[in-house]
Amino acid sequence: MGLFNKIFGSQKKTAADVFVAQIAELGNLLYEERSASNEALFEVLLFSTVHVLNVYKMRYPASYSQFQKDYFIGLEKWANEKGVYRKIKGSYSDFVNSRFELYFGEFTSWLDNPHLIRTKTAFHFYEKPLEIKSGDCMDLFLIMRMTGATTELINRIDSIIDEVATNYR
Fold first, then answer.
1. Which residues of 65-103 are buried (b: 16+ CB within 10 A; e: fewer)?
2. Number of Cβ atoms within 10 Å of the Cβ of 146
3. Residue 136: which residues within 8 A CB-CB, separation 6 or more?
4. C-alpha–C-alpha distance, residues 121 and 142, integer Å
5. In this predicted model, what pLDDT tens digit does every residue of 5-29 receive, in sequence order?
6. d(CA 120, CA 103)
7. Distant-in-sequence, close-in-space partners of 57: CB < 8 Å, separation ≥ 6
8. What is the domain partition of the chain in residue ranges?
9. Over 60: is that where the pLDDT of 3 sits?
């Protein structure tokens, strides 16, 4: 995303770039009356990535490798374009990997038990996006709203993932 791209224009957007932007836009479902910061939307993107990659791999294993590569590039481009990349303390890759571990754990536990209270996810979505150390959000009303909105987010992602896949067949 250097000076060359700013002067001469960036590369053509891939289907994965567009998909990442769509998910970020859908992420606003979790914030209702307040506007979401780009940092918070990046947390939603990372959370959603766990689901996106799992579903894509199950449905389209033949094109998964290329989609995954493009998706991660799109994710990093989005973070760069929105100014999130430079706000991450430390290594971008280490940060993303640690969030995948956290969100994978909470997401899979939530799928197994929909009544699970995802305090760490809520902490990063609402209280301290991009904070390296995870905390716990104790606002149960906010967590209940997040749970419903997350379900809606996942349903909407599922409804567009097949369309995205047509670009990789």
1. eebbebbbebbbbbbeebebbeebeeeeeebbebbbebb
2. 22
3. 119, 120, 123
4. 11
5. 554 445 688 899 999 999 999 999 9
6. 9
7. 64, 68
8. 14-29+37-168
9. no
